[in-house]
Amino acid sequence: MVNFSRQLSNTRKKFLFFGGASRGRLLDESIWVEIEEALIGADVGVGLTLKIVENLKEGSKKKNAETLDDLTEILKEQLKKILSGHDLSLASDGSPAVWLLVGANGVGKTTTIGKLAHRAQNGESAVVLAAGDTFRAAASEQLELWAERTGVHIVKGAEGADPSSVIYDATEFASARGATLVIADTAGRLHTKKNLMEELSKIQRVAEKGSGTVNEILLVLDSTTGQNGLAQASQFAEAVDLTGIVLTKLDGSSKGGIIFAIQEQLGIPVKLVGIGEDLEDLVPFDAGNFVDALFETK
Question: CB of 100 within 8 A of CB of 218?
């Protein structure tokens, strides 16, 4: 179980008025404006923020809330409810299981794959990496370094090769050798480029024709992009069957509230979060710990 306190320090600054000497503050009309400012500042989003505030007003009446401390507990319950009800496990059925990672340029996709491979190896899964980013010159080399570092196999293609065929070949390679998991890289792409998004649909179709089972398509998002990440998630969800989000760079972001907007508006769960540079710094998302850390006053 991960304590997000240190990693959420920047986002938590948006919630400072909930702590310290303010906790005993009596409720008045100005409190609603301050709550709106805090949530919007943390990139929860305007629409969801207004909804949360309306629910808070109703909840405060039902529970006879008198102080900011009372209201904070109601708010925490609401935020945890938004993040609940999702299966956050990573499916591993198949011979092998196939996880496709998609996302824009520069979000930390290749690094995430390396950390995922490390996690899987610790769980004694035999892993094969598929270098499906065949367009960026150094992409395969970068992924090969991660394969060496984590002690897993890698399947590469020629520069400019069809990424679908590389991922298909990796699946067949894994199947022949009894590997249980293929983690596939794909080229970073802008969500606004229709032809590149259509290519992702092809990659999913071809990967599903192989020996394995595509049971995770994870969108890697940079948490520092805030609401732009919501637009990215929406477009990627139209191109492929997203099963979850990996939110990177959470430790350096003040916009961690985007997690609430993504799960509330798109229904796509955040399954993993990146909280640092080390191999172990890709961790399962935990809604309760995340929300509690936002309101810590230490």
Answer: yes
Q: Looking at the predicted structure, is the pLDDT value of residue 9 above 90?
A: no
Q: Find tokens 């069809």 and name the residue.
A: 162
Domains of the chain: 9-83 (1.20.120.140), 97-242 (3.40.50.300)
Calpha distance 247→222 (Å, rounded) = 6
> Mean pLDDT across the stretch 206-228?
88
Phi, psi for 97 (deg, rounded to 5): -75, 145
CA atoms within 13 A on the CB side of 249: 17
State the burial class of residue 215 (Cβ atoms within 10 Å of its Cβ: 0-12, 13-18, 19+). Answer: middle
The maximal CA–CA distance of the chain, rounded, in angstroms, is 67
Q: Which stretch of 106-115, 186-195, 258-267 has the lowest confidence by average pLDDT?
A: 186-195
DSSP state of 225: G
pLDDT-derived band at 86 (thresholds 50, 70, 90) equals confident
- The pLDDT confidence band at residue 154, using thresholds 50, 70 and 90, is very high
Please tell me the number of Cα atoms within 13 Å of 169 on its side-chain side: 15
Quote the tokens at residue 48: 């969801």
Distance, CA of 298 to CA of 293 (rounded, Å): 10
The span from the CA of 39 to the CA of 259, in Å, is 12
Across 200-277, the runs of DSSP E, i.e. the strands, are 213-222, 244-248, 270-274
- Mean pLDDT value across residues 178-193: 82
> Residue 131: phi, psi to the nearest 5?
-85, 75
The model's pTM is 0.89
Q: Are 275 and 283 in contact (CB under 8 A)?
A: yes
Residue 46's region, left for phi above 0, alpha for psi from -120 to 50, else beta, is: alpha
CA distances from 291 to 8, 99, 253 (A): 10, 28, 15
